[in-house]
Design brief:
With about 170 residues, the protein is α+β, with helices and mostly antiparallel strands. About 25% of the residues lie in helices and about 35% in strands. An 8-stranded antiparallel beta barrel has the order 1-2-3-4-5-6-7-8. β6 and β7 form a beta hairpin. The longest helix has 27 residues. The termini are far apart.
């Protein structure tokens, strides 16, 4: 009887202590969770620019996402649906791109098990392919998102040992 009474008295205090401890950790976390990122980036976005950051003189990128030159992607519309399905619709006419051409993708937010920063990831889907059968894709660092803008960064090996990257700047459509 005494043990049961002690448990009944201590249980609410223990519950309160555990609840406060876990909420404290959530508040002190400085970066958004994967689900917060996913809610923040879903929707329709226009890729306004792709900027080279910390590139050595003369370094260039011929194609991105094993698809087309950077210029083809600038102005493209990325439709990111909450269920992971999505499309990239090109607006430019050029080498390896045409206005209205659409690439199906499957996207998600990758959260490393070791507690690292979440990343935006996507797989290109060709006609008839299912996302679960595609094993290759792309991961970009999530740099910023709010209701109207969205920024991704893709590390690029330029061969000089610097941390070079491409910065993708989107605006809400």
């Amino acid at each position: 009887m005494k043990t049961t009474l002690k448990l009944l008295i201590l249980a609410p205090f223990l519950f309160f202590f555990v609840a406060c401890s876990s909420s404290k950790q959530a508040v002190s976390s400085s970066s958004p969770s994967g689900s917060q990122w996913k809610r923040g980036v879903k929707g329709q976005w226009v890729l306004n620019s792709v900027e080279k950051k910390n590139f050595p003189t003369g370094a260039n990128v011929k194609r991105i996402f094993d698809e087309a030159p950077i210029d083809c992607f600038v102005g493209s519309t990325w439709n990111l649906i909450a269920n992971g399905k999505g499309t990239i619709t090109f607006s430019k006419d050029g080498e390896l791109c045409a206005p209205g051409a659409t690439r199906d993708i499957f996207w998600s937010i990758f959260e490393p098990e070791n507690g690292g920063e979440a990343q935006f990831q996507f797989k290109k889907l060709y006609p008839g392919e299912k996302a679960k059968n595609v094993t290759e894709g792309y991961r970009l660092d999530l740099a910023y998102a709010d209701e109207q803008t969205f920024t991704l960064q893709m590390p690029v090996n330029t061969g000089d040992g610097n941390d070079s990257f491409l910065e993708f700047k989107f605006s809400k459509r």
